[in-house]
């Protein structure tokens, strides 16, 4: 993909795992930067490039270190088990200091399985241009939004640029000891000291990548931009039914009350999907009378993709809008949802009848257990109804929609 105008001259930061993607034997290390820059230039990117090379530098020859350093590639020494941790932490820190438009590039075989979960969630909040390079092509594609993915060797050998350029800004850094310098001699001396060896063995740094988005709170208060945004609810009644004895007309007010508690007061549209052959007419009428669009689907229908697509079409990328899925099968639609969250100004709410065993890669702004969402607000909803004299809601849609493999139609509820 060629660079857009806003990205053409924006900053480019490169994090390179030298163990996964080593310099091939006989390759001039001074050409690594030029090759990376050359590949970017071919795509129309000419912004300033910073490259940081990570690895156990006690194993890297002085000739390679000198070649990298003299061309402005910063070199970081890490214990082999800590490389991913430091790369990821540096990426997160860099993102904090460099708001978009900017470009990130990761040269590593660890994107799938190590970096992708957190990066995917980060992309749903802030989208940077992302480039990848690897020695081993991942077996299955990633959900990450990438501008280009390169084979590492191809990248090194394909670029036309063979110009050695001396760049002075590079740094040498030892993460084990928090030691930095700009002299290769001093750096190599440091790596051979007893103090350094002791630091690595006595005081090892963290090994595991810390997923920063894991601690991002659920159910945070609405930002001003989203406080009055439209909320579209897709409700799978087969996995999240109306609990026995619960009044169907209270479903909508309960949801709205839960949204308001977090500061969301925008207009709410609700579509309820189920095989309604088995839904009592009274329930259908009750839902319909509170403005819930009731959609009849074939049993086990879980795919919302056509409705997601139609809704997205009505809500352009810059429109702040909220999607909510009530279902125990959100994973059925997770690929479509993640793409919408990466590329648009949307937020996501989820509700489910039981909490998933592991945190999803979908970044949510609020999550509820279905029954507690309904129960928690029941009293409030009843109270507000009696306070307002039990006046019926003014919203009436009175529609039923049918989705079956060969038939789609809309009619009025009799
Ligand atoms: Zn050290």
UniProtKB/TrEMBL annotation:
It comes from the Eukaryota. InterPro entries: Marf1, NYN. This is NYN domain-containing protein. Pfam families: NYN (PF01936). Residues 11-133, 230-355 form the NYN domain. CDD domains: PIN_limkain_b1_N_like. It comes from Eruca vesicaria subsp. sativa (Garden rocket).
